[in-house]
Design goal:
The protein has 146 residues and is of the alpha+beta class. It is 36% helix and 21% strand. It has a single domain, classed as 2-Layer Sandwich (Beta-Lactamase), CATH 3.30.450. Strands 2-1-5-4-3 form a five-stranded antiparallel β-sheet, with helices on both faces. It is globular.
Length: 146
């Protein structure tokens, strides 16, 4: 489902956890910073940034307990099918159009939000809610999350 899941602190944007789907290239630090920066800029302007869609990806942000921001990056289309690696004779439509029956376009923000809820609850089970809401030692929390 998700190619990347990021966990950063809400106050400072310090990356706590990054998980990448096998076979996908990891996100660089500037990209992680930009994703958090967009969300932080919006929140400083009293705008609640929930999600956005690009040509190839859907990005969803969710804040938990005003201390943790989880970011999910989900492909909006199945790029293998869009590239027509598995073409069949039944399917001879325009190759530039995504194939809806083979794509991830049926994944909505609600699905990704539920995924982020589950990730947060997993982090709570792993470290405890108190540790996630009142981050005292970021380095120790990073180590615990690995």
């Amino acid at each position: 489902m998700a190619e990347h899941i990021l966990c950063v602190t809400a106050s400072g944007g310090i990356p706590l956890l990054t998980r990448t789907k096998p076979g996908c290239s990891p996100l660089s630090f500037p990209v992680v910073g930009a994703l958090n920066g967009v969300h932080m800029f919006a929140s400083n302007r009293d705008v609640n940034l929930l999600s956005t869609i690009s040509e190839n990806h859907r990005i969803v942000w969710k804040v938990f307990q005003d201390s943790i921001v989880l970011i999910a990056i989900v492909p909006s289309v199945d790029l293998k099918m869009k590239g027509r690696e598995n073409v069949t004779e039944e399917n001879d439509s325009d190759p530039s159009e995504p194939l809806s029956r083979h794509s991830s376009s049926t994944i909505t923000d609600a699905h990704v939000s539920r995924l982020l809820d589950n990730v947060f609850h997993s982090l709570v089970l792993l470290t405890g809610l108190e540790e996630l809401t009142n981050i005292r030692n970021v380095d120790r929390l990073k180590k615990d999350l690995r």
